[in-house]
């Protein structure tokens, strides 16, 4: 029987910025076009948090029963380590995804943005089939695309649309930037796992690109948000304040360019997520004030 601490670790709290950051950026963009609604923003945040926790438990379950996590280097996995029974982790995954679905349905009904039902359904299917099912797309190198779409484009633009009934160009810029940051988090994770993933036939994009190519891809991903910042600054000069968050990337970038491997890459995930959150907060404030 897993302890409470192990269950919390199994939920992967280090990934929570991937859920919070896009909603924060979306809220800032919504305020910028005078469309802010506190309760819609809160519901959007709860949906994002429930979804990412559900994804994490679903991945733990699916990778665990396949044996993918038996020799992993990173933090605890409940099924792979034997700390929790697969059925218990599956129940946690389905419960979390169910909560996300119900909250999302409530948000759609209360807001009247009915077409978002389709987007919500796609997000739930994407959450499960990332590592679940007979042919999980995460095992074919498509995980990064999914993260960019779901935790970048869908999360940011969905947050704006559910409040405003439209999206703005600054919102699109935020969606691209947050999507790149979020994808960089996954890229660092998959870079760490290249040796073990290759052994079990998990052909992530990192496995396909190789060690050097994956490190270059990470650097590209964390660079794009600052190009977006400069473009946003043309119409919203206050947005340029977000450039200061580049300082926080020094440590993770050193780990990537310095050839860090295994446990040495674990802090990169945390630090990249925190940079994403800091960028989102500052950009949201700038758009709101602008």
Automatic annotation (TrEMBL):
Q: Name one Pfam family in it.
A: UbiA
Q: Please name the GO terms that the record assigns under molecular function.
A: 1,4-dihydroxy-2-naphthoate polyprenyltransferase activity
Q: Where in the cell is it found?
A: Cell membrane; Membrane
Q: Please give the pathway this protein is involved in.
A: Quinol/quinone metabolism; menaquinone biosynthesis; menaquinol from 1,4-dihydroxy-2-naphthoate: step 1/2
Keyword annotations: Cell membrane, Membrane, Menaquinone biosynthesis, Transferase, Transmembrane, Transmembrane helix
Q: What class of enzyme is it?
A: transferase
**What membrane topology was assigned to this protein in its record?**
Multi-pass membrane protein
Q: Do you know which InterPro entries this protein is assigned to?
A: MenA (IPR004657), UbiA_prenyltransferase (IPR000537), UbiA_sf (IPR044878), UBIAD1 (IPR026046)
Predominant place of localization: membrane
Q: Catalysed reaction(s)?
A: an all-trans-polyprenyl diphosphate + 1,4-dihydroxy-2-naphthoate + H(+) = a 2-demethylmenaquinol + CO2 + diphosphate
Q: Per the record's keyword annotation, is Protein biosynthesis included, yes or no?
A: no
EC number assigned by the record = 2.5.1.74
Q: What residue intervals traverse the membrane?
A: 38-58, 88-108, 114-130, 142-162, 168-188, 217-248, 268-289
Question: Its function?
Answer: Conversion of 1,4-dihydroxy-2-naphthoate (DHNA) to demethylmenaquinone (DMK).
Q: Which family does it belong to?
A: Belongs to the MenA family. Type 1 subfamily.
Stated name of the protein: 1,4-dihydroxy-2-naphthoate octaprenyltransferase
Source organism phylogeny: Bacteria, Bacillati, Actinomycetota, Actinomycetes, Pseudonocardiales
């Amino acid at each position: 029987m897993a302890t409470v601490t192990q269950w919390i670790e199994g939920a992967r709290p280090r990934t929570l910025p991937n859920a919070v950051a896009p909603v924060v950026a979306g809220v800032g963009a919504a305020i910028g076009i005078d469309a802010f609604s506190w309760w819609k923003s809160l519901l959007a945040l709860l949906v994002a948090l429930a979804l990412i926790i559900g994804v994490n438990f679903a991945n733990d379950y699916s990778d665990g029963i396949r044996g993918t996590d038996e020799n992993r280097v990173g933090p605890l996995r409940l099924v792979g380590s034997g700390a929790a029974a697969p059925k218990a982790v599956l129940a946690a995954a389905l419960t979390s995804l169910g909560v996300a679905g119900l909250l999302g349905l409530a948000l759609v009904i209360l807001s009247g943005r009915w077409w978002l039902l389709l987007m919500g359904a796609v997000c739930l299917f994407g959450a499960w089939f990332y590592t679940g099912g007979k042919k999980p797309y995460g095992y074919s190198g498509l995980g990064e695309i999914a993260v960019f779409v779901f935790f970048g484009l869908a999360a940011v633009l969905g947050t704006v649309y559910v409040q405003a009934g439209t999206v703005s160009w600054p919102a699109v810029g935020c969606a691209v930037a947050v999507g790149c940051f979020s994808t960089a988090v996954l890229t660092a994770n998959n870079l760490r796992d290249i040796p073990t993933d290759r052994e079990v036939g998990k052909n992530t994009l990192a496995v396909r690109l190789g060690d050097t190519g994956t490190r270059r891809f990470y650097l590209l991903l964390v660079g794009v948000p600052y190009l977006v910042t400069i473009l946003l600054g043309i119409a919203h000069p206050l947005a340029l304040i977000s450039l200061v968050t580049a300082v926080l990337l020094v440590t993770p970038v050193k780990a990537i360019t310095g050839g860090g491997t295994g446990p040495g890459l674990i802090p990169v995930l945390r630090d990249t997520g925190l940079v994403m959150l800091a960028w989102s907060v500052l950009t949201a404030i700038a758009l709101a004030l602008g």
